[in-house]
Every structure is written in structure tokens, then in C-alpha cells.
Amino acid sequence: MSSKPTGLNFGLQNLLDEGFEVEVRQQHLLVHSVPYVTSDRELRRGTLVCTFIESAGTLLPPDNHQVWWTGQYPCFASGARIAHIENENNRQELFRGCTIQHRFSNKPEGFSNFSDHYSKMVHYITILQDQAKAIDPNADARTGRVIEPVEGTSVFRYADTASARAEIMMTSSRLGIGRVAIIGLGGTGSYVLDQVAKTPVSEIHLFDGDKFLQHNAFRSPGAAKLEDLAKLIPKSDYFQRIYDAMHRGIVSHPYYLTELNLGELTGFDFIFVCVDNGGTRSMLSQHIQSLSVPFVDVGMNIQLVPDSRKLIGTCRTTLNTPTQKDHFAQYVPMDEVEQDVLYRQNIQVADMNALNAQLAVMKWKQLFGFYADDFNPHNMTFSVNSMSLTRDVLVSPPEP
């Protein structure tokens, strides 16, 4: 960690000024080389770790009074465990390059929480270091070593503090695959982008030849500005500009995919197909299947009941993988059928579009190990009038 001041740092600069071996990485604060005593009464050094969350460039005070520990369980100078700090003993990789062994929970009597990271880390350092000093008076965590920061290559323009706060950084990292394509940025495709842009995917490619019009604003995430609607911006350009504020590597392709340019789908790791035309869907699915790339296809069928003037209908999510694709034609309309005619008549509602997108994104996240998948369905259909979700095509054994 650089020794330069960090502004409103909630104790970080104090740690640096006193010579502690400090590093900030992946929204966590690490204090290295903390001396402690093992159960064999040997002196070792370990690292204390705690969350270090920022918001819009401002560091926040500690969100709890707990810390993680990378070494063996620390003991008194006698070799007995320091039991009053014990909370959890579970070896795990907290984030890439940081494996912890234990979690401690302790605070001075009368404290509700620590006001800054300095007081928090020094509290635990003192507990461990005092026992080490009883064996070697020269044992000290203040090594004076400065760790230079490693420039990150994150796809995010600001840190994913949500995953850090929830302690799921390793789980989230499973979604850090190479390239994802979203074909169609209508009501459903735009909500797919909204979710995928919040994951560590390296590149997100947007394919759509339509303009972003006023009716699109009412079934897309966010709130479009009137002046933007007047510009008739291509959908892919509009959404690329919006989500580039959060996620690097979003690429706009402001045109339709046809037989002439299907080669542009080569090299993707996953594809979302969000089109409303059976013929186009058939062309795309056959080509993607030939590439042996997993993809999700989505579709909606919303109808107006004349007598009641109420809407009924369904949204469908179908997963196709290189090892499970025989079911696809059974569930996915490939021709110019009535369902697609209704879809193109704009009988859509933002909540159904959003739900269709969420189901597709959750299925993608299951495939790559973010969510558990007990039944491994490859087709799901939600009916709004019965408020029911059905799953089909159970695969055994589950795909890796």
C-alpha cells in the first residue's frame, strides 16, 4: 500500500504512519506480519483481514467488528487457545490470492462498533501480539514495510462493494468469463444487460439494428431522457453508453444479425437470444448450436382477453448447451406463428420483460456455478394469470 495520504481514510493512514504492513485489495484491508503464538508455543506471523468498503470514492467506517485470520489459531504464551476471540474456523479462499483459516469476533467492553479501521485492527493486533511479546519482547507487527499497490484490471469502473459486503467475492468471480453476447435489446434483452453488466464478465457485446424509441423507454430499465429519445439513437449505442459508466468492455453492434454476418458470433462463451421472430430465432439457434456455445433463448406470449380487458400470458426461458439440445425445438417456436405475431404487436409489460430476463440470467448463473441448481431444468415457463412457474427437461447427472 502506498504511504501517500488517502483522504478520509478512517484510520488507514494511521496504520501506515505507525509502520504496519498494510495492503488494500479487493475491497479488503490486510495487515500482514502480525506475530502470534501457536499451540506449540512457537512464534509465527499471519495476516488480519477485514472488509474495507468505499462508496463513490469515499471510504466507509467498519461495517462490523469481526476480522479474518490467515494463520493457525492463535494461542496464549502458554499454548492455550485464545478462546474469547473465537467465532468461526473454516478454511476458505476469501478472494483470489487470500485464503483465511479463522474468523475472530471481539470488541472492548461497552463498544457497539469500532469507529475506524485503525482502532479495529490494532485491537486484534494487540491481543495476538501481546502473547508473542511474552515469548520474544521484540515481536512487533510494525515492520515498516511498504507494499506498493498493484494496479487492478477490473472490468468495473468502480469496485463491486456489494459482493465484498456479502462475502461472496469468490462466488461472483465464477461469472468472470470471457465474452457474452446479447442479441436483441428490446424489453427483455435490455433487462438482461442490466443484470449482466453487474457481473465480472470481460466483454458484453450488444446486437440490435433498431432505434431506441419512446415506447422502448416504458419497457426498459432506468429512465430515458426526452432529448435522447428525440435523437433516434440505435439501441445498442444507447445502452452501451448507459452501462459503460459502470462496466468496461461493452461493445455496440448497431445492426441485425443475418446469414451474411453470423460469423460475428464466433468466440463467445455464452449468448442470450432475445428476439421476437421465429425465423430469426431458428437461424440463430442453429448457428449457435453449430458453434457448441451454450445459450439461453427467451420468449413471451401476452394476450388481451376481450371481455375482461385483462392480460394473460407466459414468459419462457430455454437453456441450450452442447450436451443438452434435443429439447430445444420442442419448447421454442421457430416459425412465424401466432405467438410471435402477438409479441411484435407490443403486448408487453415491463415487469414481464424484467422477469423473463431475470429467469434467463439466473439460469446462466446456475450454469456457471453462481447459484445452486438442484433440478437442472433446461426450460422454464411462468404464467402470470396462474402465478405459476413450471420447469421441464430434468437432466441427470447435472452438467459440470
From TrEMBL:
This is Uncharacterized protein. NCBIfam families: PRK06153.1-3, PRK06153.1-4. It comes from the Bacteria. CDD domains: E1_enzyme_family. It holds the Pfam family DUF6791. One of its GO terms (molecular function) is ubiquitin-like modifier activating enzyme activity. Residues 12-161 form the DUF6791 domain. It comes from Rhodoferax fermentans. Residues 175-301 form the THIF-type NAD/FAD binding fold domain.
